[in-house]
Amino acid sequence: MQQAAKLVNCVHKCKRFLTPGIISSSVIPRLNRNFTKMSVPTIDLTGGLKMPMLGYGTWQAKDEELEQAVEAALEAGYRHIDTAHVYENEKVIGKVLSRWFSSGKLNRGDIFLVTKLPPGGNRPESVQKYIKRSLEFLQVDYVDLYLVHVPFGFKDIEGDLHPVTPEGLINMDTTTDHVALWKAMEAQVDAGLTKSIGISNFNQKQIDRILQNARIPPSNLQIELHAYLQQKDLVEFCKKNKIVVTAYSPLGSPGLAKFMAQFGTKIDLPDILNNPVVRTIAAKHKKSEAQIVLRHAIQKEIVVIPKSTNPKRLRQNIDIFNFQLDEQDMEQLNGLDQGIRILNFNVFKGC
Q1: Among residues 21, 68, 108, 228, which one has the fewest Cβ atoms lying within 10 Å of its Cβ?
Q2: Closest-CA residue to 145 (of 303, 314, 318)
Q3: 197 by DSSP, 3-state: which?
Q4: How would you write the pLDDT of the chain (351 residues) with one tens digit per residue?
Q5: Which residues are catalytic?
Q6: Angle at CA 120, nearest 5°, toward 115 and 124?
Q7: What residues does 16 pair with on adjacent strands?
Q8: 8 Å CB contact between 72 and 96
C-alpha cells in the first residue's frame, strides 16, 4: 500500500510536465515496465476531425527501408502518417497498413492518413484521378487529409511526375487556377474520398484567395518550419482563420543535401541541432536536441512530421510529451528565427 501511495504521489508531482491524458514510461516507469508505445495528443481540424500533433514523415524514404521504418513507427505509437503521390512510396505504406488492418492490430479509424495532389494534377479535371490512384496505392477507401502539394502546376504527362522540356526545364502549366482547383478538392470531400482538405507550400495571399471563394475552407497548411524558419506571420494568419499548421523538416532536414545532389545542386545545411541554445536546453531537460526543437513547435500548437528510418530515433522523436519547455526556453528558441529557408523549389529548373 505504501508503495502504491508513493506512485500516486509521483504522478501528482509530475502532472505539470505532462500533456493532458499523456503518461510516458520515462516519467513513471514502474507503472508498466513493458510500456513501449507513446500516446500523442490531437488538435481539432475544422469539421471536428482530430489530427495527431506528431506524425511520421516519409519524404525521401522508399522500398524495404521505408517498410521496416513504418512498421517500427506503428509499433512506437505513431498514428499519423504523412506521404504524397510524388514521394512514390504510397504502395509501400499501403502494404504495411493493410498488414496491420488485416491482422486486427489496428482499425482504419486508428490511423490519420495524409497524402497530396501532385503538381501534374493541379487542374480541376485531374484531382479525382490522382486521389483515386493514391487510395488504390494506399489500399484504403479514404484519406483523412488531402493536400494540394504546391501552388504551381506541371503539365500532366502520364508516367512522368516531373516532366521536362527539351531544354531541360520543368514543363510548367501556367494555367493553374487555385479557385477552380479548390472546388474540385471540395468535391472529393463530398464524394467521401477524403475527410478534410488543405494546402501545402502556399503563401498568405494564395490562401486568402481560396478562403474568399471556399465552400469548405482549408483545414491545414503544411509548410517548411523549424527553429531557423518559424514563419510567425503566416502561422498567426492561419490561426486567425482556423487553419492548423503542420511543420515539415522540423529538424532542419539533415538528409536534404543528398536529395539536392540528384539535381546537381550542392547546399550547405544549417546545423540546427548543434546550435548552442538548443544543446543547452537539451542538457537542461536531459533530452535530445531533436526532442527540444520538436517540443518547441508542439507547444506553439504546430503539428510536426519528423522523418527518420532509424528505429531508435523515431522512437525518440515521439517521446516528447513527458516534459515541458518553460517560458525562458521558449523565448530563447523563438529567438533563433533567421528566416533561413532550406528547401528551395528553384532546384527544379523552370519553377
Answers
A1: 21
A2: 303
A3: strand
A4: 444 444 434 433 333 333 333 323 232 222 232 334 678 999 999 989 999 999 999 987 778 899 999 999 999 999 999 999 999 999 999 999 999 999 999 999 999 999 999 999 999 999 999 999 999 999 999 999 999 999 999 999 888 888 889 988 889 899 999 999 999 999 999 999 999 999 999 999 999 999 999 999 999 999 999 999 999 999 999 999 999 999 999 998 766 666 666 666 666 778 999 999 999 999 999 999 999 999 999 999 999 999 998 999 999 999 999 999 999 999 999 999 999 888 777 667 777
A5: 87
A6: 85
A7: none
A8: no
For residue 75, count CB atoms less than 10 angstroms from its CB and return exposed for 0-12, middle for 13-18, buried for 19 or more.
Answer: middle
Q: Which residue has the cell 500516486?
A: 8
Rounded to whole angstroms, the Cα distance separating 110 from 97 reads 11
Grid coordinates representing 260 are 539536392
Handedness of CA 297, 301, 305, 311 (dihedral sign): positive
Tell me the C-alpha distance between 329 and 291, whole Å. Answer: 13
Cα gap 213→250, rounded to integer Å: 31
User: Which cell is 349 given?
Assistant: 529548373
pTM of the model: 0.87
The b-or-e profile of 308-319 (16+ CB within 10 A means b, else e) is bbeeeebbbbbb
CA separation for the pair 59, 317 (Å, rounded): 16
E strand map for 107-148: 112-117, 145-148
Radius of gyration of the chain (CA): 21
